[in-house]
Amino acid sequence: MRKEAFLRIIMVVFLCVSLTVPSGLMAQGAKEEAAKQEGPSFRPEEIDQVVAPIALYPDSLLAQVLAASTYPLEIVQAARLVQQNKELKGEKLMAAAKDKEWEPSVKAMLEFPEVLLMMSEKLEWTEKLGNAFLSQQKDVMASVQRLRKKAQESGNLKTTKEQKVIVDEQTKVIVIQPASPEVVYVPTYNATVVYGVWAYPAYPPPPVYPYGYAAATAAFSFAAGVAVGAAWSGHGGWGCGWGNNEVNVNVSKQNNFTKNNYNNSEKYQKKQNGKNQSWQHNPENRKGAKYPNQNTAQKYGQQRSGSGGRATTSDARGYGSGGGQRGGGGPQASDLSRGGGKENAFGGGSGGSERASSNRGSESRSSASRSTSSAGGSKSSGGGGSRSGGGGSSRGGGGRGR
Predict the structure, then answer these.
(1) How confident is the model over 78-91, as pLDDT tens digits?
(2) What is residue 200's predicted lDDT score, i.e. its pLDDT?
(3) Is residue 157 part of a domain?
(4) Does residue 338 share a domain with residue 242?
(5) Is the same domain home to 280 and 322?
(6) Is 33 part of any domain?
(7) CA 126 to chain centre
């Protein structure tokens, strides 16, 4: 009897509250709660974690990497072209990609194949970097400056024969430029050392290095220089607009780049509304990869569908629903994983690599079943094949591995 009476009291109280609180106010409260849940996708410590491997790149290359990271599927496609044309370099490699309708920042990465292959190999990191840049661009740029200051205070960021480090006297903004406009040196450094004592032990920087290089014994060193010459001056004119914490594009240089490197160059021309313009993300080149949150998706006219389901890095590499196209066609994904949990964003656990292995195993078994059950049919090519290596093969000693 007491229990029944208690339940009746609860029901009466609930009805009274429902009648006294206006429905509009309840709806507003629901919207505010949803906005809180949407919130920033990445906390400051997460942004520092994902930005650390590239924060010390020259400004022009840094800006290009940030823009290109927002198109992870095209990064994979471009990396495949590099691997399939290992004998081609520079302008010859660019010519081989002339018919590819990749976003200019991605195609320009062909000038830096080691960085491009790194971005493809460390795809979960690339995707997380791109997502952070799309949803919190100013926070990402601020993180770069914060990390550069730490590296400088630790004595690991300074002017050398490969680069110039310039500090604005008034704003204290740290700019990094190639020492020579003809040669760009890509730094390779241990992010857990170069910034001094890392402030977030639960969010250690991931081991991301230019493809073919391992962690050097020194805190900071350089990969082989990339002779860019005319190709660099016309590759898009990427730069960092530190005053507004944004990426800038030199319009005339980008137009020159697309004119020389696209069959359908007009599609990628920028309007001449001034020499420099803020970089703008093109959702068409995103090719269905989901955005990090609903606000970002709506910003670019997309809908972040599904109930939190995440595709895998194997999907991005074309191993998912289109498993039979592993060797040739482009990625088949409509989504990518953010790269695991927050404290374990880049390693082990229940991240993308485990799901990728599971997908490949399922495809292999189903493919074998179809092959054996068909009378006189040819063998399926979707399940087998060599694995492309998720986390990357180990390379010793800091030297280049080929």
Answers:
(1) 999 999 999 998 88
(2) 94
(3) yes
(4) no
(5) no
(6) no
(7) 3
Least Cα distance to 128 among 341, 284, 317 occurs for 341
pLDDT at 14: 64
Residues 319 and 282 in one domain: no
Task: Give the residue ranges of the chain where pLDDT is below 50.
Answer: 21, 25, 31-32, 34-37, 231-232, 305-312, 314, 319-345, 347-402
User: Which parts of 110-237 are beta strand (E)?
Assistant: 163-167, 174-178, 183-184, 187-189, 220-222, 226-227
Name the domain count of the chain.
2
Q: What is the pLDDT of residue 181?
A: 81
Exposed (0-12), middle (13-18) or buried (19+): which is 197, by Cβ within 10 Å? exposed
Measured CA to CA, the distance from residue 211 to residue 216 in angstroms comes to: 13
User: What is the CA 311 to chain-centroid distance, rounded?
Assistant: 15
Ordered DSSP codes for 5-32: HHHHHHHHHHHHHHHHS-HHHHHHHHHH
Query: Tokens 């066609």 map to which residue?
Result: 329
In single-letter form, the type of residue at position 119 comes to M
Reduced to 3 states (helix: H, G, I; strand: E, B; else coil), residue 335 is coil
Is the model's pTM score more than 0.85?
no
Distance CA 46, CA 343 (A): 9
230 found inside a domain: yes
Provide the total of helices (H) and of strands (E) in the chain, helices listed first: 16, 9
Q: Is 310 found in the same domain as 219?
A: no
Q: Which of 57, 64, 55 is nearest to 142 (CA)?
A: 55
Determine the longest span between alpha carbons in the chain, in angstroms. Answer: 88
Q: Tens digits of per-residue pLDDT, 109-137?
A: 999 999 999 999 999 999 999 999 999 99
Neighbour-count burial of 326, counting CB atoms closer than 10 A to its CB (0-12 exposed, 13-18 middle, 19+ buried): buried
Domain with 332, as residue range(s), is: 306-364
